[in-house]
Design brief:
Length: 380
């Protein structure tokens, strides 16, 4: 297949990856109502076509948390990307750097902070509030020392959501049954086995490797992470983070205007309007439906970003028109990585950039920073 859209990359990833890893990327929580809603609500927004306007000059650049982006897009943190392609986080970071946009490394990435930073541009770093504050403090220090310019603090995961697909695929199986399931799925996907299982080692969560004694595989590390999610965290804990981290902080996982206002009071530089890609609390609002309320509440005080349901450059412009400064994409780049590594991510990003350019030209929007609600057709 010659991929042209995100759905094409998804299909290629489905063919290449063992089912347990594809379903982990593709699935959501419970009945996946919010997962579908993210996409459907974005599709329902209509752009307002304008013609006969001078679109000779086009500027897609934006600034977020003091970082200049070539286009209003960043690669969102995606867990275990190194299980989708050989040293996947390094490949994704290189693709993002080539496109002039940030790559955000997940706490539960296979490649460590240091490996990704040494391979190219230091990534943004995503972190959860962990019960093990000593190790969390160490992670923050390592991120600072590695030159990470932005901390993305994910707050919507005090407990993992129930993901039915992971149970059905065997991803959440432990012990001998889990090992046999993984082995069987690998044997039936020889290209993945050669690229990732044999040549993409070690299969650990690099940034937290020192926290898990005798942890030799992803399963052991995921268990440690799940046990360390902290349900007691409050906005006051941001003060604790500030004792170690003096750079920009973006709070990811905000869907409510009151929570966004609390982020302002806590001293954050930005928020990501997000429902964790429909992977946490099912049945909540789509990200794009929540976006205008949060922009109205804090848009003058914070950089407001959004993720969830972004599947094209047109979707990026819709989010900008509703007040977002930029979008993060997760599943799209994970699909592209699973489909063929860095070259596929670069191809995807070029497609999204071209789609955004087309959307801007045909709505009469010369600059990404100038996008507003006049680009939307409110009659629909």
């Amino acid at each position: 297949m010659n991929p042209a859209s995100v759905s094409d990359y998804r299909e290629l990833a489905r063919r290449r990856l063992p089912k347990m890893f594809f379903e982990y990327i593709d699935g959501g929580a419970y009945a996946e109502v919010t997962l579908r809603r993210n996409v459907e609500d974005m599709e329902a927004i209509a752009l307002r076509q304008r013609v006969m306007r001078d679109m000779t000059k086009l500027d897609m650049s934006v600034e977020v948390a003091g970082q200049k982006l070539a286009m209003p897009l960043a690669l969102a943190p995606v867990g275990m990307a190194g299980m989708y392609a050989r040293r996947g986080e390094v490949q994704a970071s290189a693709a993002a750097t080539a496109a002039g946009i940030p790559f955000c490394l997940s706490t539960v990435g296979v490649c460590s902070l240091e490996e990704v930073a040494k391979a190219g541009t230091p990534p943004w770093f995503q972190l959860y509030m962990l019960k093990d504050r000593g190790y969390m403090k160490e992670l923050l220090s390592r991120a600072r020392d590695a030159g990470c310019p932005v901390l993305v603090f994910t707050v919507d995961l005090p407990v993992p959501g129930a993901r039915y697909r992971d149970a059905r695929s065997g991803f959440s199986q432990r012990g001998l049954a889990g090992a046999l399931n993984t082995a069987w799925q690998g044997m039936t996907h020889p290209e993945w086995t050669w690229d990732v299982f044999l040549n993409g080692r070690p299969h650990t969560l690099g940034s937290v490797a020192g926290a898990v004694e005798q942890g030799r595989n992803v399963t052991a590390f995921l268990g440690w992470i799940a046990r360390n999610f902290d349900r007691s965290v409050t906005w006051a804990d941001i003060d604790w983070v500030r004792e170690v981290w003096d750079g920009p902080i973006i709070i990811k996982g905000v869907l409510d205007a009151e929570d966004a206002r609390a982020a302002v009071k806590a001293g954050a530089q930005g928020v990501v309007v997000s429902n964790h890609g429909g992977r946490q609390l099912d049945g909540v609002s789509s990200s794009v439906a929540a976006l205008p309320r949060i922009v109205d509440a804090v848009g003058a005080d914070l950089d407001v970003l959004m993720d969830g349901g972004v599947r094209s450059g047109l979707d990026v412009l819709k989010a900008l028109a509703l007040g977002a400064k930029a979008c993060l994409i997760g599943r799209p780049w994970a699909f592209a990585l699973g489909a063929g590594g860095r070259p596929m991510i670069e191809r995807l990003l070029a497609t999204l950039q071209g789609e955004l350019a087309t959307a801007m030209i045909l709505t009469g929007c010369n600059t990404a920073t100038g996008a507003d609600q006049t680009l939307l057709d409110r009659r629909i």
